[in-house]
Amino acid sequence: MISSRTSLKRRLTLWLIVIVAGLGTLLLIEAYTSARKAADRAMDGQLEAASLTIAESLQWPEGKPTLEMPASALQILATRWQERVFYWLQADNGVSITQNADLPITAAMQEQARHQPVYLDAVYDGRPIRLSGREVDSAGWDTQEPVQLWVGHTRRGRDLLAQELFRKSATRFAAMVLITAALVAIAMRTMLAPLRRLRQALRDRRADDISPLTLGVPQEMQELIETLNRLFADQRHHRDALLRFIADASHQLKTPLAGLQSTSELALTRRDPDAWYQALTTVHDSAERTSRLAGQMLSITRLQHLAPGHGRQPLMLDQLMREVAIDWADRQDSRDHDLGLAIDVDTPVWVEGERWALHELLNNLIDNACRYTPPGSEITLGLTIDDHDGDAERVILTIEDNGPGVDTESLARLTQPFERGQRQDTHGSGLGLAIADSIADRHGSHLTVSLRDPHGLRVSLTLPRCAPFEESET
After folding, report:
1. Which of 100, 248, 278, 323 holds its CA 20 to 30 A away from the CA of 138?
2. What Rg, from alpha-carbon coordinates, does the chain have?
3. Residues 156 and 17 both lie in one domain
């Protein structure tokens, strides 16, 4: 039974959503990080410009540094977001020249600023701030004492600028996602079109249409089309075989029924009791053959519809062969033949199989040999061990006769239903070997029919040997 799961389109959409969501999250994180870095680079440039402006305003009258804070520097530090600004100027001897706040500048920060301009994050008065420090030389004045200049402002403008840059990136990303979703929807509809065409083609077919599919499909679906075509080919083969079997069965049943009708009509025109007795005898024999034919057709139908391995269990094949041979030795059909048993084994032969099916196989093989050989013929039921495959021993079951045999052209068709090897001088139906071959196929083997020298037939099949039943239970 086919279980209905989520549609392929929905599963593809779900996977695409998961992939896009994962990649989108990473991209948004990267966009936010890049926005903060870009804001820091832009605002750090303003800190640098303010530092250079202040450095240019630094003067050294009488060897003492003085600074008149330029308004332009303060405007640069304040930015358009009206940041709170900070500055601190200190001489090399540690004397503070001018400042507007007691900034949290450590000795390590000052040492770092002596070598190159630095940009650091700090906290002042409970607010995050951004500081820029550099050392300024007194070039062009009599004194050469350097001074350290630190400027800074709060991070509010940076955060707002980062958010603005991030919103623009997120807006572009959202637009890209929407465009991608529309394109993916169109692409999925286009890519799934061959599946829809295949579904429609199968729906539009008649129930009896099992012709091959001729749809143009992508390479990935070619194997599916080939599998469906093989399934249709198997259905055609089984349907043709079923029709042939029905036609042959109808013909086989029609002949004895027609004989019954003609015999009974002829007997009704007679008034002689002896003629009636003779007609009843003929009707009885014909009814017996017809009943046997119907039973054989039921057997082959049963074998074709039973699941493989139905009722399979370990059994002693040599014991079963002896039971069947003894049963046939007392039958009227085999009294005119020399029925023998040749079991060339020293220990019981265990095989895994269906007892009723193997019993039916032996009955059909012996019955077939008795019907198609003349009285006095030798029929031998044999069992040997084939150990040429190493550890895996196999048993070979055979039945041989020294009858007239068949011609080589008919040899390959003997296991087909209603095939009698062009023999019309017997009362056989041609189903015995077909039933035996179906049973052999259920046990993973097949019948091999060959000619004997100088004449006669040999029918054999090979079965794997298994452990005794007591060992298999442990």
Report:
1. 100
2. 51
3. yes
Task: Assess if residue 192 is contained within a domain.
Answer: no
Domain boundary among 130, 148, 163: 163
Q: How far apart are CA 63 and CA 214, in angstroms?
A: 100
Torsion angle in degrees (nearest 10) through CA of 51, 56, 62, 63? 50
Q: In the structure encoding, which two tokens stand for residue 363, read together? A: 């009955």
From the CB of residue 93, how many other CB atoms can be counted at a distance below 10 Å?
7
CA dist 268 and 223 (Å) reads 66
Map tokens 């007609």 to a residue: 279
- Inside any domain, residue 392: yes
The domain total for the chain is 3
Reported as type and span, the H/E element at residue 464 is strand 457-464
Element (H, E) at 186: helix 156-191
The bridge status of strand 457-464 relative to strand 394-401 is antiparallel
Token pair in block for residue 390: 């190493």
Residue range of the domain that includes 57: 8-163
- The b-or-e profile of 169-198 (16+ CB within 10 A means b, else e) is bbeeeeeeeeeeeeebeeeeeeeeebeeeb
Query: For 335-374, what is each residue's pLDDT tens digit?
Result: 889 999 998 888 889 999 888 889 888 988 998 888 888 8
Instruction: Give CA–CA dist 368/360, Å, rounded.
Output: 12
Give the model confidence (pLDDT) of 323-336 as tens digits.
999 999 888 878 88
- Determine the Cα–Cα distance for residues 424 and 169; give it in Å rounded to an integer: 92
As a whole number of angstroms, the distance between CA 240 and CA 201 comes to 24
- DSSP string across 409-447: HHHTTTTSTT--TT--SS---S-HHHHHHHHHHHTT---
Amino acid at site 145: E
Task: Mark whether 113 and 79 lie in a shared domain.
Answer: yes
Asked if 469 contacts 314 with a C-beta cutoff of 8 angstroms, the reply is: yes
* CB within 8 Å of 185: residues ≥ 6 apart: none
∠ CA 443-448-453, nearest 5°, is 150
